[in-house]
Amino acid sequence: MNLPDFIAKRTINSKTGQFSGSIHKIAVFSIAIGLAIMLVALLIMGGFQKTIKEKVYSFAGHLQVTKYTMSNSFEETPISNNTDLYNNYQKYPFIKHIQSYTYKAGLLKTEEAVEGVLIKGIGQDYDTSLFVSNIIEGRFPELKSDDYSTEVVISQKIADLLQLEMGEKVLMYFVQNPPRYRQLEIVGIYQTGMEDFDERLIIGDIRMLQRLNDWKEDQVSGYEVFLTHPEEEERIAEEIFGLVENDQYVSRVTEKYSQYFEWLELLNQNVKLFLGLILFVASFNMIAVIFILIMERTSMIGLLKAIGAKNSLIRNVFFYSGLRLTVKGLFWGNFVALGFCAIQDYFKLIPLDQENYYMSYVPVDWSFPVIIGLNVLVLVIIALTLMLPTLITSRMRPIKAIRFD
To answer: Transmembrane stretches, by residue range (predicted)?
Structure first.
């Protein structure tokens, strides 16, 4: 039997002394509320990061392979997709998927207004599952096998500006020599909340753009590369750069749309500072609680020393007392935090302004490594801080401790 733990258990569960009972409740409450706040902050922060990254990656992939050029034009110089990297990407374990795309600028014209947009052409290699979460109405264009499709997906913002609805047809004029136009049918509407995409981008058939550009079937603006481990994109980008043609360039989407990722990093730093402050307060509270418990149990300490108990045993009694209170606090903190996050994830009770936060509600990312890691971190830090106040018991003299009132 673990004697220090047995004494600690009896001490905590003792019904005598309303003051010590209140102190126990305060200790449990402070740890529970601190852990709950930290867990909610981390899971929501993870939800923000995951949602925004998925929105950006769904439009542009993790890496982009394009023709190396000094031009800033939206219409890129074509490259051929008849390459080993495109046709046999499965042999590279760090590549999850590759899909080709083509951009072309133009004007959407209705009777009431004209809007400059950028149409992104996609082919049959396009993975719609990566983008489907952004579709709020309709579907993706059906890419016919015999001829190109004139079906397009537009953003809710463009639809509102031009007063367009599902199923309507709209003319798109392409500025080129000679000028050309196509009548497009709206079969889907998407919304991301990100101005870089919603204000100018529509999605259509890549073969229509190839026909307009007088390109061959294997000519595209570039490839979007999706990685199995996006966190290693810097290293993988260098490796893929060695696989592409000499006149091609590999760009990282985190650099191309750096404003979103820098904003996330700023939020991440604020959360880390916030968590550090809460951990400090929780540790300080536990030290204060143990000091109070030691003062209240001074007579017990003197009695234990008088009958021959070692200092290490007495220190362990109060260490286990603090540890038991900490575990109770962790249990209730997890219960409150995970319960709150589950309710928010299912019912989406807390809304957000999509124009400012790029999403319409507070997201939650159920990262179990984060949940387990935070619990372990809190337990270890508080366990280490508990060793400090218990050292005072070794300096107490039995006679004075027994007579302490």
So the answer is: 26-48, 273-294, 367-392
